[in-house]
């Protein structure tokens, strides 16, 4: 009987030692997968950041030709120069001039991806959420959508 209790205790000790050694290794492996996803995000940002920066800068400079240079054909159809002027004037009136952007996140779908930025403008007290949508057209990455909306935080922020 004592031998059975001794074997059971040894099993518990060996199991505990094994868990202490294996669990950190599994966590390290999971961390490596996480790093792989982040490097994929970095690859996406290599084209998304400059294309979004161009859109925002060209709104400041009122240059439709450069603003629309990366548009998909559908975006060119939806936002011709006459519509761009209205959109630009609305952005300038509501938010002012573009100042800076900060990457927030991205979302990958089967036929498109969306990159989110927190953007500051000269006349806006709160940041603005910019969503840039990218599609592949004729083997090139193109802007397939572009939205700006005031960024509001959920929950109680202490203000009444």
Number of helices: 4
Q: Report how far the terminal alpha carbons are from each other.
A: 69 Å
Poorly predicted runs:
10-38
Rg on CA atoms, Å = 25 Å
Topology order in helix (H) and strand (E) letters? HHHHEEEE
As laid out across the biggest beta sheet, the strand order is: 1-2-3-4
Fraction of residues in helix: 40-55%
Commentary on this structure:
By secondary structure, this protein is of the alpha+beta class. The chain has a domain of 103 residues: Nuclear Transport Factor 2, Chain: A, CATH 3.10.450.100. Helix content is 53%, strand content 26%. The protein is built from 4 helices and 4 strands, in the order ααααββββ. The chain has a 4-stranded antiparallel β-sheet with strand order 1-2-3-4. β1 and β2 form a beta hairpin. The longest helix has 60 residues. The chain is globular. It starts with a helix and ends in a 10-residue tail after the last strand.
Jot down its keywords.
160 residues, alpha+beta, Nuclear Transport Factor 2, Chain: A, 4-stranded antiparallel beta sheet, 4 helices, 4 strands, globular
Helix/strand layout:
Elements: H1 2-61, H2 64-67, H3 73-78, H4 81-95, E1 98-108, E2 113-121, E3 128-137, E4 140-150
Concise summary:
By secondary structure, the chain is of the alpha+beta class. It has four helices and four strands; from the N terminus they run ααααββββ.
């Amino acid at each position: 009987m004592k031998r059975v209790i001794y074997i059971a205790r040894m099993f518990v000790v060996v199991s505990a030692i094994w868990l202490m050694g294996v669990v950190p290794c599994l966590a390290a492996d999971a961390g490596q997968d996480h790093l792989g996803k982040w490097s994929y995000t970095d690859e996406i940002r290599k084209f998304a950041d400059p294309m979004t920066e161009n859109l925002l800068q060209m709104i400041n400079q009122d240059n439709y030709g450069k603003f629309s240079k990366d548009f998909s054909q559908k975006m060119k159809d939806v936002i011709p120069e006459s519509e761009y002027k209205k959109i630009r004037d609305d952005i300038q009136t509501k938010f002012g001039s573009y100042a800076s952007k900060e990457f927030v996140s991205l979302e990958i779908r089967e036929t498109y991806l969306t990159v989110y930025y927190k953007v500051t403008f000269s006349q806006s007290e709160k940041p603005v959420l910019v969503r840039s949508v990218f599609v592949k057209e004729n083997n090139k990455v193109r802007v397939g959508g572009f939205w700006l909306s005031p960024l509001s935080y959920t929950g109680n922020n202490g203000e009444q």
